[in-house]
Amino acid sequence: MAELKGALIGCGFFAINQMHAWRDVKGASIAAICDRDPERLKIVGDQFGIERRYTDAAAMFADGGFDFVDIATTVASHRALVQMAASHKIPAICQKPFAETLSDAKAMVATCAAAGVQLMVHENFRWQTPIQAVKTALQSGAIGEPFWGRFSFRSGYDVFSGQPYLAEGERFIIEDLGIHTLDIARFILGDVSSLTARTKRVNPKIKGEDVATILLDHENGTTSIVDVSYASKLATEPFPETLIELDGTKGSIRLSQGYRLEVTGPEGVRVSDASPRLLSWASRPWHNIQESVLAIQQHWIDRLAYGGETSTSGADNLKTLALVEAAYESAANGNPIDIGAML
Ligand code: NAD
Ligand code: 89V
Hints:
The protein is of the alpha/beta class.
């Protein structure tokens, strides 16, 4: 297939991973980059040898010469940049959180649909090797029909040194990290009809909540818990592993720390290693996330080249973003939230 040319907007902390991954993706390369901060533009441009550099996204779109845009900026700019892409008929990947509000996200999906351009949210956690392994084990029928699940991310890792803005927002863990965990819960057990949440702030140096416990009713009748914490001091730091427990009518699945996958069924117990690969440019403990960045970007290019809806399309991600908004609402008023009514 002919190589697709991309442009990346936002040359910050996480974009370095996306730029490395674009080098590995088959069928695509980055032709232009943009950041309103000239220093970040120079660092990324020099590191990845990109000549076409812009401090203004509108100027980059006006010049054109690319087939898709990868928006790696923080959330405040997402709506304007996605709508700019749609107005130029350029398919767009947009980092999570997709938008500041669910109504913004709905408008972004509607604009892209009206323009006939593909829109994918860079919701990469479901693309992690261990998460895919859990889904494959469940789909194999080994544990029968699932009736209960737990999706857990508990850590004491210092995320604030790399991403200082995370300490400054009124919202923290659900919007930044729980969004991934909620998406994994949807990916594994299906869409959610109702949600109840409780939050806490343990770290006095940050503004938002750093602990959340969320109860989900899935549409298929299963119940699950999503629990996330950046205030958990553990003997062995698990960052950035999501641990999963699933109970089914015939057995159980446990994804435990160290990427140990245990599947118990009528035939007995099968233990395997679901570790991610350590890509040449990756570094521990981020390699799990870094491998999933390559996987989601390859998925995007495959869909652009051969057609079909992406796994984390804008429309799909509305159902994850609704869970984020519902979790804050439930934590504030103490009540369960009807998800269907939000969509
Ligand atoms: P960052 O602040 O380090 O980088 C963002 C960059 O975007 C900055 O250099 C800023 O100057 C630039 N920028 C902002 N608005 C712009 C605009 N309108 N035009 C041009 N440039 C603009 O942030 P980050 O930590 O790299 O996070 C970026 C996004 O990635 C966030 O939405 C974050 O939640 C997400 N993220 C995702 C993952 C993941 O695994 N999917 C991991 C970390 C961060
Ligand atoms: O994945 C993320 O969005 C990151 C981190 C893992 C640090 O929470 O912000």
